[in-house]
Design goal:
The complex is a heterodimer of chains A (290) and B (315). Chain A is mainly α and 290 residues long. Chain A is built from 9 helices and 2 strands. In chain A, helix 1 runs antiparallel to helix 4 and helix 6 packs antiparallel against helix 8. Chain B contains 11 helices and 4 strands. The chains are: A mainly alpha (290), B mainly alpha (315).
Chain lengths: 290, 315
């Protein structure tokens, strides 16, 4: 049985465009975001991304897990960068101290000090805004692209038929195999298999993963016969294929692609002339150096 | 006139290249996290992607008359299955879902057996797609960031594992491959032994709970893992001498692993500005060595299970 991504037809901005046009816009947007480190520019792009999210018609309940996972990951790493001051060192050479927080205790005679500097704070902030801009656009894709159109979308972007179909099938199989894996794991657990308690040396541990990996893989290969037969019966690969659904660019799709391309060119030009690189407010530059 | 197959394959390569560009932009975000940074020369990544693809294409060109390169319905479906499984397994076992313990800095990444097995069982094209597409999708699912030259490296693992099909005499080719593998694994390990005093960090070992972010000196076990893996491969080769498939799958998988990951790790010398010692000892050995161990154990099990399936269904 095929499990799908959580696509549903919705009245939303993202779904009102052709998927090919949206992918091209998405790529241009990504490239625009990663060419900046200035939090003011990033905030504008972030607002665009948020606009798309809020008009997507996807409820918080549906997206909650994805957001919490990515959010936790980003916040964790940003906080880590902020606390250690690692990362971002290629952007600034001197740090302006806002405050030095000294711990009230000592560990073996060593007193932990947290240097809160303008550079570290703005680096962490820019990173959060950057990554959230990209993540917000990415999270929406499985919810908003019709799985029936994956193949024709890749084909429309210039991929040869067979490879486009293989990419289509890959995307379709991922949620199914994730489910199969869960079912296999439950079945093995019912027999007393405990993945949380792998014991023994490395070789023994790897061998104990076989009861998970082998059944899922072999079941997938065994199940492929039906798919292969169905495709062969429909004369797959004999001639250039046609697709059940057709995609046609409408004026709004062309406008979106032109907007994306313009955004990209504009961003690259700005970045080339040195605008939009790492920025901290001028007033903070008068603070004492670290 | 160029024949159609050539046109198709070259188009395929271009498309793979284009999808790398695509996914790099997607994941470029996360690349800025801590030590996962791209380095200052992102363009170089694409140069190396191109280098890897040209290498794959060269292999195809030299042996293009061989039937192993044909792509029919069966191959298209196996490509998709392999890539989807590889993506799911690498997502599940990278530590975000299951916290699998690591033994002496070697985290369990059993998914690597998949591109090797799919390459060996279904041919080089299926192997390449499984490795490259599976790695991209898996990385995108995780949000760990995207390293296109590592995706090509993963593709090469499957491609080379599938090259077993190009040789009619399995035994002879296998022994040659064993010798090449021994030389490569031996060279990397020698490099490790000569640089031991420098305490080169294991750049692939992460344990956020313990505050370790790829900066711990490499352990003796991780440093010698390529040799240990090679010995395991030899054991499989000679312990199952009556079933040549086990030995051949593991041997070709080993060569793919050494060359594919070697390519990716060495390219980091230019891309991330790593000194050669860090690329070889801190990156290549802790990736390729454990992979050999996983492959030597899991690939034969998969080959045996697939043979049983074929007997059962009469294919």
């Amino acid at each position: 049985m095929l499990v799908t991504w959580r696509y549903r037809k919705r009245r939303s901005l993202i779904q009102s465009f052709d998927p090919r046009a949206w992918i091209i816009f998405y790529l241009c947007f990504m490239a625009a975001v990663i060419s900046f480190w200035d939090v003011r520019v990033l905030a504008v792009l972030f607002a665009v991304a948020l606009g798309v999210v809020f008009t997507s018609g996807i409820g918080w309940r549906e997206m909650r897990r994805a957001w919490l996972f990515i959010g936790g990951f980003i916040v964790y790493f940003s906080l880590f960068t902020f606390l250690t001051g690692r990362g971002g060192v290629e952007f600034y050479t001197e740090e302006h101290v806002i405050r030095n927080l000294e711990a009230s205790f000592t560990i073996l005679g060593w007193r932990p000090v947290l240097h809160v500097t303008a550079e570290r704070a703005f680096y962490a902030l820019s990173m959060v805004v950057r990554v959230f801009s990209l993540a917000s656009m990415t999270i929406l894709i499985p919810y908003s692209f019709n799985p029936a159109q994956y193949g024709v979308t890749f084909r429309g972007l210039g991929v040869p038929d067979k490879i486009a179909y293989a990419m289509d099938l890959t995307m379709r199989f991922v949620p199914t195999y994730a489910r199969d894996f869960q079912v296999t794991l439950d079945a093995q657990r019912a027999r007393g298999y405990e993945i949380e308690k792998l014991r023994g040396g490395l070789v023994a541990q790897v061998r104990k993963l076989a009861p998970l990996i082998v059944p899922v893989t072999i079941q997938a290969i065994a199940g492929s016969e039906d798919i292969i037969d169905a495709m062969d019966l429909r004369a797959f690969g004999v001639r250039p294929r046609t697709w059940l659904e057709e995609l046609h660019y409408r004026p709004r799709d062309r406008a979106l692609m032109i907007f994306g391309a313009a955004l990209l060119v504009f961003s690259l030009a700005l970045a080339y002339f040195g605008f939009g690189s790492f920025w901290i407010p001028e007033s903070l530059r008068s603070l004492p150096l670290l | 006139m160029m024949d159609r197959k050539l046109v198709n394959i070259s188009l395929t390569l271009i498309v793979v290249f284009a999808s790398f560009l695509l996914l790099v932009w997607v994941g470029g975000s996360v690349l800025n996290i801590e030590r996962l940074q791209t380095g200052e020369r992102p363009l170089l990544r694409f140069v190396f992607v191109a280098v890897g693809l040209v290498a794959a294409f060269g292999v195809y060109w030299v042996t293009r008359a061989n039937k192993a390169w044909e792509v029919g319905t069966r191959e298209v479906v196996y490509m998709a299955i392999g890539a989807a499984l590889y993506a799911v397994f690498s997502y599940l076992f990278n530590g975000t879902v299951f916290l699998v313990p690591s033994v002496s800095q070697v985290a369990l990444r059993p998914a690597i057996a998949l591109p090797m097995f799919f390459g060996y069982a279904f041919g080089p094209v299926v192997g390449f797609f499984t490795g490259a597409m599976g790695n991209m999708v898996g990385d995108a699912l995780t949000g760990f960031g995207l390293f296109p030259q590592w995706s090509v490296g993963n593709g090469l693992i499957g491609l080379i594992a599938g090259m077993a099909m190009l040789y009619p005499d399995k035994k002879k080719s296998m022994n040659n491959v064993l010798i090449i593998g021994a030389v490569l694994a031996g060279l990397a390990t020698l490099f490790y032994l000569f640089t031991r005093s420098q305490a080169i960090p294991n750049t692939l070992f992460f344990n956020p709970d313990a505050g370790i972010f790829g900066d711990q000196p490499i352990t003796l076990f991780a440093g010698l893992s390529a040799v240990i893996g090679f010995i395991l491969v030899l054991v499989v080769r000679f312990a199952f001498a009556n079933n040549i498939d086990f030995g051949a799958a593991v041997t070709w998988g080993m060569l793919g692993n050494l060359i594919g990951l070697g390519f990716a790790a060495l390219s980091d010398i230019w891309i991330n500005g790593y000194p050669p010692a860090v690329a070889i000892v801190g990156e290549f050995l802790p990736a390729a060595g454990p992979n050999l161990i996983f492959a030597a154990i899991l690939v034969p099990i998969l080959v045996a299970a697939y043979a049983a399936l074929r007997r059962q269904t009469g294919r």
